[in-house]
Structures are given as structure tokens and as C-alpha cells.
Amino acid sequence: MMRGALISILSSAWTVALLQQSQPSKPEQLPTFRTGIDIVEVDVTVLDKDRHPVKGLTAADFTILDRGKPQPIVAFSAVDVPAPVTYSAPWMREAPLDVVSNVENRRLVTIVMDDAYTDFNPDMAKRAKAIARNAVDELGPADLAAIVFTFMGRSQNFTSDRSRLLAAIDSYIPRKRNGEPPLPCWGPTIAARGMPPRRGGTGTRKCDTDTLRTVAQALSTAAPGRKIVIFVSGGRTFSFDMENEAADLSKLFRDLQAANITVYAFDARGLTAPNMSMANQLPDPASSTLDENESLYTFAVNTGGRTIANTNDPQSHVGETFRESSNYYFIGFRAALDSSDNGLRKVEVRVNRPDVEVRTRRGYYPPGKKLAPREVTNGLPNGELPVQATATVVAVPGRRDAEVILGVRIGIPLATATPTAIELAATAVDLDGKPKGIQRQRITLTPTESANTTPDMSTHLPLAPGRYMIQISGLSEGRAGSAILDVDVPNFAKEPLAASGLMLQERPLAAVSDKALAALIPFTPTTRRQFHTDDDVAVFLRIYQGGKDRIVPVRVSASVKNEQNAVASNYDSTLAVTNFSEARSADYELSLPLARLSPGEYLLEVDAQSGARHVIRTARFSVVK
């Protein structure tokens, strides 16, 4: 069954041991639990009568009841997620980051688009896409989001790149036909309650529960923090068959509870009449509005979320759910060990304030052995060791595979006078979740009197044309961290116009120590994106003309836009036919006009054009005094 690329990427089959010595994540904003596996973590949202978050509470304001018995709070933190920022320049919101890192505390938002159980209906598809797009618009400056489908679609791993998220949403197509989901979404059991046997006696549906469970398992090793699922569905047209689906639901709720995920469910069907089956538009005595939405209510209620249903404008409520989740309290309590009960344990959270609503999960399963982050690669930036990374892709003459070149900076203290060893690993995974390459190396950094930051390092991977997720992991002196890059590898040999990524480096240029890379690139790419006005920064781009057609001139324009979206600098040039080598490539170079720029944020955009074809590469940077 195809449930989208992200589901494959997040599946356990993709689990890879990268660095055996890695340590658990320790975000600065959230508490670190050091008291063993018997600690239960809950996110608690407190709303006033107008559904606004209540701020300023302390641990003394809360009471945690585990199966009716008060439990001491062993960890507490009030979390305030930054609201979406209004920018004067569109690029400041939309332009992707060409340098990624793991240094920020983030809210993780997974948008699950249920194409398996949503009718093939233009209105439903329009509402579903609007809900998902509004969720992307509500992302805060440090949030990461992913797009997942219950059956088929162009899934997207966690990223802050809005263009990638929106492209994934646009691929959404409801797959339910004539009241039936796709065949793989019917399990091998008897017909569900109230429905006649169909398709060879199959009846139990599993695509939605399987998808949510896979997402929960993947997020279970993420750093502590808010984890939200926006579940967009057409809703099942009948309630769960508890006889056939109880086991699946039990596993799902166990995994959602273990990962501390809150589900906000949105019904894309719009306003529905009571006792009306959406499949045939005829009264159905075995169905009701609640029954039709039971799966949505079940997912939400059991995780402390809410359901938006029975409205023709569900997308307008997306902002409410994000506001509710933007201010919350992260609470840890020790699980009671006075019982051998391994089932769902009821949890109640009380606040000593009148007229407030408390939203949190209803219970938890007894904590078991947790898989340490060092044992998995889950597609999420994590770890206490700061890691920054950038990527460029270049063709290799005589080879179909391209070379993905990674510039990496590991944040380690420079106060020590002794050399510091760093273990660096880069792992590439394709859209089917299969590892396609791994590079490991050990690097020793020797401090110098003139160095005030750690230097950039480089590593590389040969990859065939396609889309990949690359995880960069570092380990130094017992601390570990990782950052995630989305990389598109062009087919340089066939595409009429293609380009490498932008490479930046401060002069004097850093030499390339790797002999294989030295033959491909002029300098080691830097992850630095903050410069002074007196810095001298070189920019490099390689342009390719694939295929067998004759080489033609390529016009290249470069512009620098400021925070007001005004063009602060502009360059135009043409790469003549004679500039292209026998390998059908030509190099383009320029210097950032830092001396002419005021302090602030900027976007460098380079556009290579040949006829109607354009290839655009961007890099964000800032100027300081």
C-alpha cells in the first residue's frame, strides 16, 4: 500500500543506527527528565471562557490525578510558542533556508490528509486543501511541519520550507469512490457493522489508524515539546467496528499517548444533515452525524485535541486551534507503580482557577523502555550538540550519479587548548524510505589563536537523480546532534538547463582538503550567513546544459533584496557558448555587495535563463555592523 513518501520515510524499516554514542535531546526551553522511565509527560492547555490561553500559571496551580490519586509534579515549564510573524517582504516568509540547524526549540506539526476515506468530491477536496494551507500559514517562525497522506500523495518530511509543504498539499486527491475507500484500506476481516460484505468479504478499514500510528511511532523519539497532528478527513461514514478494530485502536492510542501527541481533527465534508449517509444521500437509520464523525472525535478526544465538524467553513477554525496550542504547560509526573495494570490509566489535570477549561490527554499507558534517539533516525533535527549544514549538488563528468557536497559546522567550545575529535555522519534516504548512502568520517579540530568560531567541514555523497532527505549527525565529547536537509538531485545529463546550489565562502577562500572534491568545487562551502560590511564573500554557481542539443547562451541575473522587498543590488550578465566546457557546464561567480548594504536581513537570488527555461537558486543572509 502506498501511503505517501513520508510514511515510508518515518516507518521502522527506515530506522538506521548512525552514532551509537549519541545522547538524548536537551532543549533549553523544556525541562530535562533525569528520573528514569517512570516519568509521564503531558502537555496541558488552559483556556478561559473566550477560549484564550491562560498564562502565568505555576506548578502550584496544577493537580495531577493518576487514577484518582494525586501525584507530585517533578517537572514543569510554561511554554509560549512565538506567533506567526508579519513580514514586509514576502521572501522573508517564503524563501527556504539554505542552511539548516538544530539549535531552536520547535513545535512539530504533522498535517495528515486523509485521501483514503474522503469522497471524490470537488467541494471536499477544496475544503481539505484550504484547511491544510491555513495550517501552513499559522506556522510560527521556529515551527517544523510535515505533510502525510493516508493512501497516496506527494508527502513531505518535516521542514520550514513553505513552498515544499504547499506543493505536497496541492497533490491531494480524495480516493474514495462510490462510498468505498481504495482496496488496500480494507483489512481481511468480516464486514463492518451496518455494512454489507464487499470486495471479497473485506470490511475493516485501517489506512487512517495505520498512518496515525506510524506518525506517532516516528515522533516518539523526538525531543520534548509540542507535537500536533492536524487530521483532515472526510470522516468515516459509519462508526468504528469495535469487534474488528479494537486492537488497532488500542495500539494507536497507546502510541499517541507515548509520543504525547495532540490531534486536532477537521471534517472536510462541510455541513451534514443528521441521519444522512454521505455515501448515497439517503436517510440511514444506522447512522448519525456523530457516528459519521466518530473516528474524528475519537482521535481528538483521546489526545486532548478537538474536532471541527458540521461547518461549511472548517478552514476558518484552524487559527483557533493554533492559538490554543501556542501557550501551554509542559508537566512531568511520576507514574504510580502500585499496580500491574498495563492498560490505559486515567489522568485528570485540575487547575485552581474558576471558569477555565483544561485540555490534555485523558490517560496514559505505563511507560516502558524508550528508544534512545541514538538508535533511530526519525527525520527530525535534534540533540544538544549544535549542527548547521548546507548542501550543493554538482555533476561528475562521466558518471550518472551526482555528488552532493555538504558544508557542516559543529558548535563546540573553543576555550580548550587541546584538539577536539568530531565524528561526522551523513545519511541519505529516498522517498521510499530506503537508505541510499552513508558517509562517516572522524575529524580532529586543532584550535588556533585567531579562530573565534569552529571552522566549516565538508563531506559528500554520490546520489542518483531524485529527491532525498539527508541527515547530518555529529558527535563530540559525549554530545550529539543532527540536522536535516531536503535535497533535489537533478538529472544533469538530460535536463536542458540545471544548476548546482549556491556556494558562499569568505575570502581568503577555504581550501578543499578532499582531493576528489577539489576537482569539482573551488572552495569548501560555508554555513555562515551573518557577515560584516567589510567582509569579502564569494558566491559560486555552476550551470549545466544537458541533452544533446547545441549549447546556447544563458542569461544570468542576480539580485539582493532587503527587508522592504526592495532590490538593494542587481547584476546582469550572459554566459556565452564559449564559457561552457566539454562537460556542458559553465561557472558563474560574484561577490556579495556587503559594503553597500545596511545592517539587516537579505535574500540573494540568482536566476539562470535560457529561452523559457529558468533555474533559480537563493540564499538568505544578514549584515551586521
Short description:
With 625 residues, the chain is α+β, with helices and mostly antiparallel strands. Helix content is 15%, strand content 34%. It is globular, with a radius of gyration of 26 Å.
Structure description:
The protein has 625 residues and is of the alpha+beta class. It has 3 domains: 53-97 and 105-364, von Willebrand factor, type A domain (Rossmann fold, 3-Layer(aba) Sandwich); 381-489, Sandwich (Immunoglobulin-like), CATH 2.60.40; 491-511 and 521-625, Coagulation Factor XIII, Chain A, domain 1. The protein has 10 helices and 32 strands. The chain has a 6-stranded mixed sheet, with helices on both faces. It has a 5-stranded antiparallel sheet with strand order 16-23-22-19-20, with no helix packed on it. The relative contact order is 0.14.
